[in-house]
Write a sequence for this structure.
């Protein structure tokens, strides 16, 4: 056992080094990388899969709805003026209660691929444009899920994939798949325990329990809960307020901070600190850092360009 310890320690250190190197390689499309990491990019976005009745029987199969309608199932809005830098992804599939059709999945993937490389994008809000229903992805910028209605099954799994979740008190959320004799298949069994703890996540999944906004806030599933307004968009308005808070910050720092947190939460503290150190180093040579120092000295708001 003693003889094997150095080898095990060496393997652990090598694993940590690879993880830190990967962290450096994922930071920015324009950042310099070593030759061994050159060309690496964050993989394509992964979206929750849906479940549909199996052909010829009462069972269920994993897959997507194949319906394609002429309406715009995904609306991408780049906000302007004081909200410049905020992008709203509005899911608009009223006839399917925002279930994930193949067409919608393809549109989401294309939108995510475009947004990942757009340095002008600071924060993304995912919301429903179908009243009463919510239903991101592997994005480098902050993402906020605005839940103003139902977020059940895949809808909640989409929300769990976001960095921050806000909801109206009247919203309904739950991973209800066990009622259909299946389990959450879009990341729910992995992301819910990370959000609220293992024991409580098991309780909610085993029982298929549906929570309202207040209950979701109490267990830590969402960050903010609001009384619903007459327009039915209280959560969206709160998400917009949060996005406005993020706008003045350095865009490179925001992306790197998100990466450091996400990667660090998957490893032990020592490796996490190494990841943080690697991420911090990526902010030092940026023009934004120099602009931040100059703006502080001149007592004016900084004008960051994401460089």
């Amino acid at each position: 056992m003693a003889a094997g310890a150095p080898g095990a320690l060496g393997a652990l250190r090598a694993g940590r080094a690879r993880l830190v190197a990967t962290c450096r390689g994922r930071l920015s499309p324009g950042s310099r990388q070593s030759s061994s990491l050159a060309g690496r990019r964050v993989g394509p976005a992964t979206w929750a899969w849906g479940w549909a009745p199996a052909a010829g029987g009462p069972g269920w199969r994993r897959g997507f709805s194949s319906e394609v309608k002429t309406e715009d199932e995904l609306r991408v809005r780049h906000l302007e003026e004081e909200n410049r830098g905020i992008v709203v992804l509005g899911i608009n599939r009223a006839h399917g209660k925002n279930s994930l059709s193949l067409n919608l999945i393809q549109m989401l993937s294309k939108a995510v691929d475009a947004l990942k490389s757009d340095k002008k994008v600071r924060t993304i809000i995912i919301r429903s444009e179908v009243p009463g229903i919510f239903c991101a992805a592997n994005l480098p910028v902050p993402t906020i899920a605005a839940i103003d209605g139902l977020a059940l099954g895949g809808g909640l799994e989409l929300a769990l994939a976001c960095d921050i979740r806000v909801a109206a008190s009247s919203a309904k959320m739950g991973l209800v798949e066990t009622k259909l004799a299946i389990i959450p298949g879009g990341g729910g069994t992995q992301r819910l325990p990370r959000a609220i703890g293992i024991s409580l996540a098991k309780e909610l999944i085993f029982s298929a329990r549906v929570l309202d906004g207040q209950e979701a806030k109490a267990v830590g599933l969402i960050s903010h809960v609001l009384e619903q307004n007459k327009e039915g968009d209280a959560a969206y308005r709160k998400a917009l307020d949060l996005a406005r808070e993020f706008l003045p910050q350095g865009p490179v720092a925001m992306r790197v901070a998100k990466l450091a947190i996400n990667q660090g939460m998957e490893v032990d503290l020592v490796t996490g600190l190494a990841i943080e150190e690697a991420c911090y180093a990526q902010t030092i040579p940026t023009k934004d850092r120099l602009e931040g120092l100059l703006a502080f000295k001149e007592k004016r708001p900084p004008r960051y360009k994401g460089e």
Notes: Residues 1-9, 28-70 have pLDDT under 50 and may be disordered. Residues 125 and 240 are 8 Å apart (CA to CA).
